[in-house]
Amino acid sequence: MADAATFDHIIVGAGTAGCLLANRLSADPARRVLLLEAGGRDDYLWIHIPVGYLYCIGNPRTDWLYQTEPDAGLNGRRLRYPRGKVLGGCSSINGMIYMRGQARDYDGWAAHTGEPAWSWAQCLPDFVAHEDHWRLDAHDDPTLATLHGHRRSGSTGEWRVERQRLRWDILDAFARAAQQAGIPATDDFNRGNNEGVGYFEVNQRAGWRWNAAKAFLHPVRRRPNLTVWTDAQVTRLVFEGGPGAPLRCCGVDVVVRGQRVVVQAAREVTLAAGAIGSPAILQRSGIGPAAWLQPLGIPVVADLPGVGANLQDHLQIRAVYRVRGTTTLNTLANSPWGKLRIGLQYLLTRSGPMSMAPSQLGAFTRSDAQQRWPNLEYHVQPLSLDAFGEPLHRFDAFTASVCNLNPSSRGTVRIRSPRWEDAPAIAPNYLSTEDDRRVAAASLRLTRRIVAQPALAPYQPDEYKPGPQYQTDDELARLAGDIATTIFHPVGTTAMGPDGDPMAVTDPQLRVRDARGGRIAGLRVVDAGIMPTITSGNTNSPTLMIAEKAARWILTQT
């Protein structure tokens, strides 16, 4: 193996977290930063047109093409499990929804870890630090400063948040129906309690997708102390010391365009490869459950049972309703003239269906009156299809997808072999607890209650899926397994926790633990995998917040 240069910091993964980390760390000209991305550049047109996620998910140019293991909770089905394989990572192929979650998510992290920095009050400034919110475009409203920042001398953060550039009559009717069912209207899901119904805000700029590469990486690519390698796959981490001596991560073994090299890190290696990629790299490097690694012939560096455990995800249950008396995307996109209209609208105004996020209308509410906080999220779309990637139905319809925000089911990510070319086994174990099955049945009943409200009556909604013949809790839970799919929010596989927590992979400052209760020097994880519990909403922007906070720790601790 040839030796490459030494850098101060090596960041593995140029996704959501990695792009922000590269920006913040390289702002210090004394630090030499190497950013590694296994995928290619984000110069594919469909990355940047919002509806282009249809052409990026399932495309080997931009997606790892993972699948889950057959899942008993899904009645034996496998699911497609997209993960971004390109500069910007999942922010280049995701739904673009800007969502922080709920204050109680972060207060729970602070209580769990014993680290006050993870409280909502101390996380909010890390969200605001990089936010560029549309509400500040017209004027600098001081009442928004705490929630969304303010403009200082004309400058703002890098992460653009805008209103969507479309509306649909059927979605407006669903919003009114939700209000009639007791869900209040809201114009901001990001105040700390996201209860309500309204249109999602999105990470776009003037009708184009705004990914992490555009926001944080491309503006600083010419910094002389920042090096970016694409098509660079990390095979394993390199260590020095141990046994009996302190263990330190001193670099990475990486295949760059077919050439294998070892790159040294003088200060720190930071894994930002995501909740699937980071535990796989740790396991290939000998950090993980010994019972998993030893049968594969991998020498155990640190027996950490939490690496690859604690996988959590949001499972959405997709209820479809046929409607009459209105046009939805189904008939519009199935017509040659409709397609022409859609294309011209985007070409001329950067608006309309081609500017659509995958979900436009959202709602947060409770599955039953005993819930202390909203535990359900709706993604509502003016379209329907049998499964993602398949043709739209040839009748007008809308889809009301609902997910349990706080699932109790836990899964695993586990490598199959020491070879980096072999995809890991991803087993989310959806609907594996009685509580998750109960919430699934309750959420379908709530969807029916919303659709039965007067606001939707003019459209004569008819339940196409799962079908009104299914009524009992057991039937609805089983049907949820038939029709549910992931919203692509995997977290938790390298979870942080306090000293003494046997399943904690990282400490509250995201430094990787060793098997003796100490730390592996020079190694940190900064991505959604560190979440001990999943946030109550979409996970992309919380990952940026994590990276913002971690960047400060790295700069002060190394």
UniProtKB/TrEMBL annotation:
InterPro entries in the cross-refs: FAD/NAD-bd_sf, GMC_OxRdtase, GMC_OxRdtase_N, GMC_OxRtase_C
Cofactor: FAD
EC number(s) per entry: 1.1.99.-
Spans through the membrane: none
First-tier enzyme category under EC: oxidoreductase
Binding-site list for FAD: 86, 234
Keywords (A to Z) from UniProt: FAD, Flavoprotein, Oxidoreductase
GO molecular function, one term: flavin adenine dinucleotide binding
Domain called Glucose-methanol-choline oxidoreductase N-terminal: residue spans: 274-288
Entry's family note: Belongs to the GMC oxidoreductase family.
Protein name per UniProt: Alcohol dehydrogenase acceptor
